[in-house]
């Protein structure tokens, strides 16, 4: 049901990420070059990021992108669930919940972490059902601009 992404998944991954970033699950779109850069990094190593293809009845149903970091606050490695996207025709099949169970059982991280748009109530309820708790931090970013 879940398998590590491979080079043969390139077209599916890029197409799915574009769909995800055009949905109301995210705050803004990203350039296609970022998607390609991420895929290329995934093919090089799993040091910083790894991705899974989510399958249902032998068909690609979505993907999950994970990023890794270390946190003193968490006491070790933190895996960020950067993105989880299920194609509309496969939603409400329990695939997201199955992926959370898979991740909790196989991931050696001290903490699993994710973020979501506050308006995405449905996702918030799913995450809470699977044991995620609200972490009351605001996030701030500084993006280096590409020249």
* Outline: globular
CATH class category:
Alpha Beta
Q: Name the helicity range.
A: 25-40%
Question: Which structural category fits the helices and strands?
Answer: alpha+beta
CATH fold type: Aminopeptidase
Overall structural domain count = 1
- Give the amount of beta strand, in percent: 25-35%
- By DSSP (H or I, 4+ residues per run), the number of helices equals 4
**In order across it, which strands form the biggest sheet?**
1-2-3-4-5
State mean pLDDT (0 to 100 scale): 93
The beta-strand count equals 5
Which blocks of ≥5 consecutive residues have pLDDT under 50? Answer: none
The major pleated sheet works out as: 5 strands, mixed
Q: Any guess at the CATH architecture?
A: 3-Layer(aba) Sandwich
Order of helices and strands: EHHEEEHEH
Instruction: Determine Rg (CA atoms, Å).
Output: 15 Å
């Amino acid at each position: 049901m879940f398998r590590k992404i491979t080079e043969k998944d390139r077209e599916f991954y890029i197409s799915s990420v574009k769909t995800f970033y055009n949905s109301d699950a995210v705050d803004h779109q990203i350039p296609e070059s970022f998607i390609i850069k991420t895929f290329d990094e995934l093919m090089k190593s799993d040091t910083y990021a790894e991705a899974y293809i989510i399958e249902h009845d032998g068909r690609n149903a979505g993907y999950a992108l994970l990023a890794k970091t270390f946190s003193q606050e968490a006491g070790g490695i933190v895996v960020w669930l950067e993105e989880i996207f299920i194609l509309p025709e496969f939603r409400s099949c329990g695939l997201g919940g199955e992926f959370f169970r898979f991740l909790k059982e196989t991931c050696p991280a001290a903490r699993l972490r994710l973020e979501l748009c506050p308006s995405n109530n449905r996702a918030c309820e799913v995450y809470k059902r699977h044991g995620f708790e609200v972490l009351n931090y605001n996030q701030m970013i500084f993006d280096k601009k590409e020249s």
